[in-house]
Amino acid sequence: MSAAEIAGAVALGVFAYLLGAVPFGVWIGRATRGIDIREHGSGNTGTTNAYRVLGTRAGTVVLVCDIAKGAVPALLAGLLYPAWLAVILAALPVVGHVKSVFLRGGGGKGTATGAGVVLGLMWLVFLMVLAAFLFALVTTRMVSVASITAAVAFPLLTWVTGQPLPYLIVALVLGSLVILAHHSNIVRIVRGREPRVRFPWNRREAGDRSVDEGRTQAPP
What we know:
With about 220 residues, the chain is mostly helical. About 75% of the residues lie in helices and about 0% in strands. Helix 1 (about 5-20) runs parallel beside helix 5, helix 3 (about 45-55) runs antiparallel to helix 4 and helix 5 (about 85-100) runs parallel beside helix 9.
């Protein structure tokens, strides 16, 4: 690599880390609700807690921003550099999200940003990992279980689809980071204390059960 190419890679690496470190959840929480989401819900800065604390609209904005800050640097790295260097640069937004310089080393768990990295490097693998995530989410109603499922599926699907070895390595690294970041969730899952999300059909089912119970208990 020439000196100019090395300088460009370093610049992209700094950009990738700093973009990943931007705490969109915290900033959007302050802008829309005047609160710091680290002081509410799970205390996490990422998408899941943003949905819980800020609501659907703001949570969706955080989701899109967190995915984008992983996808943009990964796409640029994949287009400009060989696979071994691209994966190093692509991992930096996730590192920035988990260990944000703007939050004194704190951050989120990196699931949405990691998904953006996969989208930028391997769109087909992204779609398959997304399918695994959604299946786990619908069946368990636990975002943490869905995230861990996606983290396990990511390296497996990267290997099955025959991606370059550097991509497989980064899949293993990112998957491991996501799982390690969910260690407290794993403890709550084992203890049966992990929160579950409610889908519209769950609310309808709960309402139907309440009506049925009311009819059963009604006096003749």
